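Protocol step 4 of 5: obtain the predicted structure for the target chain.
Materials: sequence only (see below). No template structures provided, no constraints applied. The aim of this step is simply to have a reference model before the mutagenesis design in step 5. Sequence pasted as it appears in the construct record:
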Amino acid sequence: MTLKNDFYEVVAADKDAAPPYFRIRLNPSHHIFQAHFPGEPVTPGVCLIQTGLELAEDFLGRKLRLHLLKNVKFLSVVSPLQTPEFVFRITKVAVTEDSDGVALQLTADDGDTPLLKMSMVCLAI
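Step 4 output (C-alpha cells):
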C-alpha cells in the first residue's frame, strides 16, 4: 500500500543536499486519523515507517522491500493538527556486506523538534 499522495504529499525535496531531505505534509482528513484517534489524531508509527521507506525509494530511484527494521525511536508524537509538515532526512545509505541490500538511516524533525530516528535494511525488488 502506497501512502504518498493520499496520506501525505511531498511539498519540497532536495535529493542533492547533504543530507538529502523531503518535506512532507500530512493529510489530516485521511481516514487513518479518524480511527487513530478520533478528536486527537496521532500518526501511527507504522505509517511513519512506510513513509520513510517510500521516500528512500524515491531517493534511490528503485522499489524496495523492508527486510529488517533495526532500530526505531519515536521521539515525539506526530499529530496532523500540530505538526502537519515536517522533514525526513536520509542520513546514511550503504550497501550491505552481502551486497543484496541497502542499509538506511533516516530522521524526521519539524525544524525544532526531533520526531523520529530509524535504521533499516531493504532489498531492491
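Step 4 remarks: The mean pLDDT is 96. The first helix runs from residue 31 to 35.
Proceed to step 5.
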